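Format notes (please read before filing issues)

Several people have asked whether sequences and structure tokens are stored in separate files. They are not. Every record keeps both together, in the order shown below: the sequence lines, then the token lines. Line labels are part of the format and must not be stripped during preprocessing.
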Amino acid sequence: MNIFALSTGKGPSGIAILRLSGKDSLQISKLITKKNDIKSKEVNLCKFYDPSNGKMIDEGLLLWSPGPNSYTGEDLAEFHTHGSNAVVSCFLRVLGEQENCRLAEPGEFTKIAFQNNKMDLVEAESIGDLIHAETELQRQQAIKLIQGNASNHYNSLREKLVKSLSYIEAKIDFAEDDLPENVLKEVQASIKHVHKNIKQILEDQKIGEKIRDGFRISIIGDVNAGKSSLLNLLSKREAAIVSEQEGTTRDVIETYLNIDGYPVILADTAGIRKVKNKVEKEGIKRAIKKAKDADLTLVMVDASKKTINKDLKKLINEDCILVFNKSDLSKKPPKNEFTKNNQILISVKKNKNIDSLIKTIKEKLSKKFMKANSILVTRERHRAKLNAALKEIEKFLKKDQKKEIETAAEDLRLATRHLGGIVGKVDVEEILGSIFQDFCIGK
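Then the structure lines:
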């Protein structure tokens, strides 16, 4: 079966690219272009026709890539047309009318590329991440994965386990022959190295997932300290209601931001104070929980006040940034004992020193990378597989390899399968659907 789809975005545009992959793609291309001399590795200038009536659809370019040297590993044609809705709709209809030709499912081109060994699962997933990347940091992470950095590392760990497993299975098959003592020691050392390496990867504070999904930053502080105004200023829209009336914000309001290349989910919360109102009390409870769960907290204080709220002080830790707002009313923040914290004097109303705040936010977030490994786990699927492999290796290391060699070998075999499952070295048909369904149709 041949598959086709629009690979560029919908809507009027200068050009549109339609992909066609499958064993009949060259024959279909000849039928639509009325050309028998379509060349590969060259740009073919063509007129495109509707085979049913011979009428011209458009004029454009055709790129022809015979398999296996194409994105999917199959014969692949790309039609570059003008990007009007009428041209695209007509072209898609014509392709759909051809024999053994159907519209591709989401991510099906990449799924076929994986099945034809053009890429592994991690690289395939990273293409999806690159498509959805909205910030520079997300783009950089996706590119590293596409280049195979993580895949190579996981494959290296798996190969160490496979080699160790081969020695253990040799011992089982030839029980009468003793393996040299130095070989057994090397096996133990190699497996312990893999165990240590996996543990280090998992102790990453989930930085990879946070880059992919967004760092969570909460704004907490006094009532009317300017929290909602700061959220609106950073998001460049009226995301939160701003009022001089105290307690306007009752629930958590979140907005997704690109702060100078960093993906951030910024949360505005209820002001911290003593209240009797049940609704506001619940809002404050949620604000405190949000602050505790956040990767970074902006503690916002009215600079014109002489002291910091006692209840607010309890929420301040080393990961917080103290933001003193309303510098237009007071040139100095109130004296406080939090000298280890970053402290910034701003004015949301006058838009003063906001750049310094953004710079400090970036610095605080970037320090998390300094503690992280070069291999970052970007998906829960990878983390689950690594944890499962780690568990099996720990079971292996606890066993007496002389008395329980068969079950120890099974532990190692399962660990190898879990590591292989990350990149697709095992039967992974059951997870393909969930991976590729988030892709766009033409990818």
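For reference, the curators noted about this record: Confidence is low (pLDDT under 50) at residues 427-432. Residues 211-371 form a domain with the Rossmann fold fold (CATH 3.40.50.300).
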